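chain below, 426 aa
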Amino acid sequence: MCENHNAGPTSDTHKSPQSTRTKLWDLSAKFHCPVIGTCLTIRELRRLYRQCKFTSQPPCRTDYDFHLTFVSAAGQRIRPAKLVQKTLDRKYQIMIRRVRPLKSAEALAEFWDESVSRGDIAGAFWATLTHPAAAASLLDRVYAEVHMLSHLAGASTRISLARLPALEERNTEMERELRDLKFRTSRQICERQKTIEALGSQLERARENGKQLANLRRRVTELESGERLLSLQQQIATLQRDIARSQAGAEAAGLKMAHWRQKALEAAARIEHFEQRLHARPHPSQEGDTGTRVLPADPQDPGRLDGRCVLYVGGRSKLTPHLRRMVSGCGGRFVHHDGGLSDGWATLNNALERADAVMCPLDCISHNACSRLKQVCKERSKPLVLLRGAGLGAFTHGLKVLQEKHLVQTPKTRHSPVSGVRAVVR
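prediction:
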């Protein structure tokens, strides 16, 4: 304990009965040292020292200086003692509330013994010293036990300091072993994780195999029961019916194809017949007729054109050679314009200058080109025959219209009574 504070034991006559807790400065001086050393830490003493702002003594430098300063001030009712009193009451308020209901020294002694057995010394020490029912004999016993505990703590501290280097070396060795253990554990965890993943993959494959096995078992059951065979037989019957219907449809289509092939052969023979008749007609120079030539009414015999020029606008380019032979066979001249697809309108103007009549199929020319052709023929007083289609039959009927309506005349009377006449073949 501290010097100058080791007073003798306190007798019971020094403790007067009171109803309030005892203050720090009212305790015997011998209790100040164990209270300051046991109930407060060095950090708390340093904080209290800064709050007190001591100026009349040299500044404290060591832990013992702080301890001695507050032990010296504890016996006086001054600011340092009041701050220590307030700090201890706030720090150990739970213990103080626990001993408050106790009314006798015997009960307080039992509380102290129980706290010592639990190792809770500091709070019980302060609560017992300041309790109103604390007798002088109990205070002396409490002081003696705390005093001896401080010696035991000091001896234990010296033993611990002596063992500290060995413990530090052992601690370093254990830290190294711990790092090795962590490394090995981490590696084992990684290996086990890989093993778990591999087992998971195997389990997933096993599940898939189980599903496939179940499907195979179900199929085997179906085959054994004949349900699958019956289903296949029904499918085969359905396919056979479909094949029969397809064969019947193919035969019907073959018959239709043969029919249309025969029609095509008949049409080709008819065209060849027309061409032979056209080529067999005499040249216009063998006929003595001059002036206006009226074409015969028979569509199979379009008559003679006597060198007149027929302009054909639009139509199908693959039929142009046939149309040209028909006009040439009738003794006329044939000029074709595609309606603006590749031939320009300047070419059409030149052709109109040479043409005696104009023919145009409605289904093989654009609406704009047809309207423009009508306007140009009207302005130039050119006969215009609009054909229903671009076939050979419509062209033959167009030649018939030219004969019936007197649209093709001799060059001398070409623009006299028939200027601007337009006919439409329906």
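Residues 234 and 394 are 57 Å apart (CA to CA). The chain has a mean pLDDT of 79.
thats it, cya
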